[in-house]
User: Fold this.
Amino acid sequence: MSDLIKVLQRSFTTEFYRLNMMFFLLVCGLAFGFMSGAEHKALAEFITSSPLLTLVPTALWLLYGLKMNSFNNQVCRMKEMNFVRLLTLSPAPTQIFCVITVVFNQFVPAIGYGSFLILWAVKNQLFISALSIVLSLLVLLFIFSLLLYRRIRSIDTESRVSYLKVWIDKSFQKSFLQFFTEWLARNHPGVIITSKVFGCLLVFAVCQLYKYDAYDYRLLALGCLVAFEGSMLIAHQYVLFENHRFQVLRNLPIQLSKRMTHFALCMIFLCLPEFSVLIRNYPTQLPAYIFIDVSVFVISLFILGYSVLVRIKNDLENFSGRVFMSFMIIVVLILFSVPLYVLSAIASITALVIYKKGFYAFEMVGEKAPSA
Amino acid sequence: MLQINKFFKRYQDHLVLSIDSLTISPGVNWLKGENGAGKSSLFKSLAGIIPFEGDVILNSISLKDQPIEFRKRVNYSEAEPLFPEFLTAKDLIRFIGKTKKSSIDQQDYYSRQFGIDQYFSKSCGTFSSGMLKKLSLVTAFLGDPKLIILDEPLVTLDQVAREILMNMIHEKIADPAMIFLMSSHQSLDSTSLPIQNIYSIVNKTIEKQ
Assistant:
């Protein structure tokens, strides 16, 4: 059995952590860099003070679990992973044990923090809170193990297309705009959900601040900069799609301006939730043109991020470094009241120059052969 | 006429293929080479999918200087085609056809040839490897290409489909400027194709046989 677990661990667990290294580094940075020990204790005390409040970490673990599940589904869809189906030939207890081990190991960060909360609750004799955390973790572990178990059993079975999809496919023809958005929604729903939830909450929170104090446009600009920065992950997926998963796009005679416009339209479409929250909660003390300024500003940043990804051969480590550096520079420029339209113009022009030089010279580095 | 000048293809620092100068004339050209010799890398480079050092000129149009014009005239079918699984054959053919300035009549004509029209509203995820190959081959004939690159076109095709493909190639090479560049591990001698030239990749370069 240990050999079986070893193969599954390599295929699912190690790959999961490897591909999400940046995400875990970011979480570690936030947890251990920005928060002190006392603040961690205060947060744990707050969460465990009521069983209802334990739903907050549960919701976050659920999101994390969805991300895990999306990754596991993706692995199971890969043709080279068809062999995993052989697991179903082993006895049922072995299958269940293997699947639970994989999901448990993927879920370790949630279990780790959950254990900290449980210990804290027990220490303060808040047994109902401790019990609700234990139950939440067990239920999530059970659900995601069951999902992986079912997914492994259905690998390589005949694909079934729903009647609705058959009807839609017969009645409508997809536009180019739908190609990427549908691909992203089908293959990386976790990226969409996490970036949208984060972005919307941040935009909402920043808009709320204007209700209690007087601020100028810079607070909104800074808030939107951080909120929309989360969607850079989508820009990365776009580069993967355009240059790797659907490689024939590079052979098509499409003008660079059209490619760039298409990318911008996809991003605008995918950022509609953030824009909706911004419109709905737009601070009354700011003039309306600031909304246009901020919108153009974030779109220009997306364009810049996209062209930088093309230029640096999709090297994520390099990209994260550049994003961080540009972020710091832009924060300083905003604080020094450099108008947003000036920043937008600089970002757009830089993006166009980089993109023009980089697109045709671009080649994915270190990626496996694409799978459908 | 296809001219390849000072061509170098490297992955990181590893040289895969170098061609000092090569002119490929109209007609059917067969490129041979072992697995991993660099055939697909050359084809992808010629199709503008991956970058390379040097230049490629098709009928006085340079890939580096006129990338859009060049891509209008060069079509490519992969050895193992992969398309997003949720797209239908119709979505793909209409989209690629539109960018290649192919009329709906032409798209329907080539789709009918391979029987793709019967699966027009089916998504690619439900296609067999043979159907995916046919779909990829249909897209390689759309528009008004002057260079069609077919990487292992016979793989996964049944006998009937192979004959249809040969007929389509025959139709196209009626145009005296038309160039076909094909790779195949199976012999093309047994087909009815008039092979103009045979090239092989030896020691990381191309030699004419």
In short: The two ends of chain A are 31 Å apart (CA to CA). The interface with chain B takes residues 159, 161, 165-166, 169-170, 173-174, 176, 179, 182-183, 186, 245-248, 250-255, 360-363, 365, 370-372 of chain A (CB under 8 Å). The first helix of chain A runs from residue 2 to 19.
